[in-house]
Amino acid sequence: MKRHLLEAGDLDRVDATLVLDTAAQIEAALTGREVKKLPTLRGRTVVNLFYEDSTRTRISFELAAKRLSADVINFSAKGSSVSKGESLKDTALTLEAMGSDAIVIRHGASGAPHQLASWVRGSVVNAGDGTHEHPTQALLDAYTIRRRLGRLEGVRVAIVGDVLHSRVARSNVVLLHTLGAEVTLIAPPTLLPVGIGSWPAEVSYDLDAVLPKVDVVMMLRVQAERMTASFFPSAREYSRRYGLDARRMAVLGDEAIVMHPGPMNRGMEIAADVADSVRSTIVEQVGNGVSVRMAVLYLLLGGAPS
Ligand code: NCD
């Protein structure tokens, strides 16, 4: 493993598999235990540095570090000296001076975690940077697929929706390709990034044509907060062409699963009855996120096995 986890490309197949296997071992070790805690990172300090809003990812990293017995500092830009204009560099150096061993960062600027990694001695974990990457989300998605379908090699995955603004899509395409899955991206042409042809994935504009052929459908949130222009005529039109409703779900193969990284726009990219159906792994993804992030922190901080 490298010292940092900045993007999905930092993991080759061996490392990525090691993270998934370690997560499975951690999960097995904690199942049925009354005290869901391992002593592995006792005496180590993990800082969660969040410059952008987050529910799942922030809580998940906090819980992951706590379950490994690390000391955890949660730092959010709101209410800190960032609002007095303190730079990312000075903030990071301050945190390191106080003894942090790892910094988990979410930032609105693509590339911020790379910058941070050049300034600090500890490990940096990217928890989402702008529209760039979100590697631990891709890991927890891969973990969820492997757990549900028993494999990743040859699994056919459709990633549907706002690919343009999605760090989740970017990280998933890279990681799933590394792990031998076949990805098709489905979106209106306006929501695909320039240069999509060089991604290791197929591209389609036709959701109905692809659905019967896939094992996994991963729906992406329409990221209205990142949209500076109008990318589709109306919410209704978007949902009609690219939303997953019960009618569309019915054409999926028997074993196929439906994923979403959250937060969802129910009724827009995914219908409520689909999100709550037995095919949906949405709640499972959240639970798996804790085990996967425990594995990442454990492997990066090199804690000895307990
Ligand atoms: C994603 C994110 O923030 O990139 N959510 C998450 O981490 N679970 C996806 C999104 O915001 O749509």
From TrEMBL:
Gene3D superfamilies hit by this protein: Aspartate/ornithine carbamoyltransferase
Domain Aspartate/ornithine carbamoyltransferase Asp/Orn-binding: 153-300
Any one GO MF annotation of this record: aspartate carbamoyltransferase activity
Domain Aspartate/ornithine carbamoyltransferase carbamoyl-P binding, first and last residues per copy: 3-146
Reaction catalysed by this enzyme: carbamoyl phosphate + L-aspartate = N-carbamoyl-L-aspartate + phosphate + H(+)
GO cellular component, one term: cytosol
The EC number(s) this enzyme carries: 2.1.3.2
Keywords carried by this UniProt record: Pyrimidine biosynthesis, Transferase
InterPro entries tied to this protein: Asp/Orn_carbamoyltranf_P-bd, Asp/Orn_carbamoylTrfase, Asp/Orn_carbamoylTrfase_sf, Asp_carbamoyltransf, Asp_carbamoyltransf_Asp/Orn-bd
UniProt cross-references to Pfam families, sorted A to Z: OTCace, OTCace_N
Binding-site positions, carbamoyl phosphate: R56, T57, R106, H134, Q137, G262, P263
Pathway(s) where this gene product acts: Pyrimidine metabolism; UMP biosynthesis via de novo pathway; (S)-dihydroorotate from bicarbonate: step 2/3
Biological processes annotated in GO: 'de novo' pyrimidine nucleobase biosynthetic process; 'de novo' UMP biosynthetic process; amino acid metabolic process
Binding annotation for L-aspartate: K84, R167, R221
The protein's role, per its UniProt record: Catalyzes the condensation of carbamoyl phosphate and aspartate to form carbamoyl aspartate and inorganic phosphate, the committed step in the de novo pyrimidine nucleotide biosynthesis pathway.
PANTHER family, per the entry: ASPARTATE CARBAMOYLTRANSFERASE (PTHR45753:SF6), ORNITHINE CARBAMOYLTRANSFERASE, MITOCHONDRIAL (PTHR45753)
Family according to the record: Belongs to the aspartate/ornithine carbamoyltransferase superfamily. ATCase family.
Protein's recorded name: Aspartate carbamoyltransferase
Organism: Trujillonella endophytica
Lineage: Bacteria, Bacillati, Actinomycetota, Actinomycetes, Geodermatophilales
Gene name of the record: pyrB
